[in-house]
Amino acid sequence: MKTNFNTSIEKMYLLKTTLSFSENGYPDKQSVLQAIKNYALSNNFTVKIKEGKFPILHIACSKTGVYHDKCNISDEKRKKTPNSSLTGCPYLLRFSYKKKSKIYLSLFTYGENEHCHNHPVTPENLASSHQGRISLLTAEDATIAKTMLENHAKSRDVQKATSDKVTGMRKLRISDINNLKYSATRGDEESAHGATELIRTIEGKGFSVLYEFNKRNRLTHIFFTNDIMIKRA
To answer: 170 by DSSP, 3-state: which?
Structure first.
């Protein structure tokens, strides 16, 4: 079978578990996305929509694509190496909506590398994205972070408290924690709007969210979890 990618097969990384598609297909785009996101997170990578124009739905690894220099700076004049997580990963899943049966069905791959990655699929890889870092949090981590944020703990202390107890890997970046703090400390109206957007974003990534606003529309409590976090608890 002909491959459409330049990366050699020797550099490909296969997943430990095989994705099993629903025999009855998926009723809508969100159902497809949720199934693929759960599978991806449990295998230490994240995904994004590459092509979503109805009736086609292509879901790729978040590391697909390559860095593009929009400033057109030559290597000789560049002061520092561009910081990009993109590796041109070939991993791609194709779906199409069938109007007659009213479901999304998976399509055949075009290249032999489309179910492989060109980067290690490890917890460290998962921690390279915000979505991945959030998924690494256990229910205990979420509770610790929530309590510390409510008590105005320093971001560095929250980061340390939620780090992996064995490897020491940081599950949250300082920016992740500061964003949570910021949404809870803005002005009353802006805070409510920011917190609502935060909640919608978390829910949109497949998490169940419990939250509480006070009389001034300030976010006072927030707790989020998903099936993967529950299994890891």
So the answer is: coil
CB atoms within 10 A of CB 36: 19
For 55-98, how does the pLDDT look when each residue is reduced to its tens digit (9 = 90+)? 999 999 999 987 666 666 655 665 555 556 788 899 999 999 99
In the chain, domain spans: 9-126, 130-232
Nearest to 130 by CA among 190, 41, 69: 41
Residues β-bridged to residue 225? 208
Name the burial class of residue 106, with classes exposed (0-12), middle (13-18) and buried (19+) by CB atoms within 10 angstroms of its CB: middle
Distance CA 114, CA 129 (A): 21
Residue 61 exposed, middle or buried by CB count within 10 Å (0-12, 13-18, 19+): buried
Tens digits of per-residue pLDDT, 150-200? 888 999 999 999 998 888 888 888 988 888 777 666 554 555 555 666 667
Residue 44 to residue 94: CA distance in whole angstroms: 20
